[in-house]
Amino acid sequence: MQWSQIKTLFILCFLVLDVYLLMQFLDKQKENDLAVMEKQESSIEQQLKLEDIKIPDLPEGELEESYISVKQKNFTDTDLSKLAASDNQKIALVEDKTIVSKFDKPIPVKDSDEVKEIVKNNVLSPDSYDYWGWNKDLNVIMFFQEKNNQPIYYNQKGLLLVFLNDKNEITFYTQTMLGEENKDFDNSKKPLIKPIRAIDALYNQYELHTGEEITDAKIGYYSAQPMASDELIFAPTWKITVNGERNYFIHAIEGFAFSNDDSTFLEDTMTSIKNSLAKIKDDKDFQEIIDQLDLKLETINRSEVE
């Protein structure tokens, strides 16, 4: 065998050996990383236990989700025709993006179940929305739109608001909707941080206190983009609920917290609705809605002063 052939054979052998050693190193590194993560998670759980902070059974395994990109839907005459069958609604379409519907006869309700039933029978695509909550101070009920069976938290462009008077009667509602996802957007799935690490982020920000309880950990979507953006990108987001009443939102890929506040969100949304309705001139019914919005905005302003 010629020396050049022997040299080539040695080179190939060393290359194979190098590849094998590299693979062994990467496998070992991965095992070490997993061990470190498991140790960190165990440490987090121990710290929470010391603080008597209770946590539920959390989703396990490697979780993956993708970002999504969506534009706001423009409602059409066909959409509105689906609501026309109700003789108790007077409907206006504002700038093709917001449905405002006033009930000629206010509808009394006792609880959220009755509200859900009324929504089911009176709004467009009711199954696209998820009940969020009833703000008793303002008597406004919020429904968040869903995408991929996950709620989109606190976004004015995918929102159903039901407004009640001081007799707990539904007087009107407003509705916006997000359209179909952008199919050209990179929707490759990315690994999510585990919910225990989202809880740890809250603990490190002093949002969790001794004796409290984590009552829910659920994935949804959130966008920190300005509302003026034509196309919104939504990030997978952990919603962490504390004591069944306080909600926090943690970016499920990058790990930072989103800010949120019911009153601030409702104030911004109602102000936007009011400004849009002002463009409908000489309409007594919708002037009444503006007046009701003014009263609710005044409630927020009084509570801020106090």
UniProtKB/TrEMBL annotation:
Species in which this protein is naturally found: Lentibacillus populi
Protein name: Regulatory protein YycH-like domain-containing protein
Domain Regulatory protein YycH-like: 32-253
One cellular component term from this protein's GO annotations in UniProt: membrane
Gene3D superfamilies: YycH protein, domain 2
Pfam families (UniProt xref): YycI
